[in-house]
Design a protein that fits this description.
135 residues, alpha+beta, TolA/TonB C-terminal domain, two-stranded antiparallel ribbon, 7 strands
């Protein structure tokens, strides 16, 4: 009888420990889904050449080209764990005339390869610098 009670006690202790560990794992997973990293082991990347994509999608009026509008726009956004982009904003800009055009085009970008932390895809901030110079 003592042996039975001892085995039952071990089972209950082990079961409680496993349940707590699993609960902790679930909480970590949910927390990581909501967390947006600023630094990860593997940064997000565009599928293909981001410069080629931007050149083919940015359109400027003849006036803009004639006036030789130039400058640097840095766009900040989140690359989610599924590769979708969200939360777009101008991080820094030297030419506010370009901001609206850049944001409009960046919002149309296809999915990226997400950043990875400990080998797991996570949401991550990304800052994309775009430089315009007259040709």
């Amino acid at each position: 009888m003592k042996r039975f009670i001892f085995i039952l006690f071990l089972f209950l202790v082990t079961d409680t420990t496993i349940t707590q560990a699993f609960s902790s794992f679930q909480n970590d997973f949910v927390e990581n889904e909501k967390k947006v990293y600023t630094v990860v082991e593997e940064m997000p990347s565009f599928k293909g050449n981001v410069n080629t994509w931007l050149i083919s999608h940015l359109r400027f009026s003849k006036r803009t080209i004639r006036e030789g509008v130039y400058g640097r726009v840095m766009v900040k956004f989140i690359v989610k764990s599924d590769g979708k982009l969200s939360d777009f904003s101008i991080y820094r800009s030297t030419n506010h005339e370009l901001d609206t055009k850049v944001l409009r085009v960046i919002k149309k970008m296809p999915k990226w390869n997400p950043g990875k932390h400990n080998g797991i895809p996570v949401s991550c901030y990304y800052i994309l610098p775009i430089v315009f110079c007259p040709q």
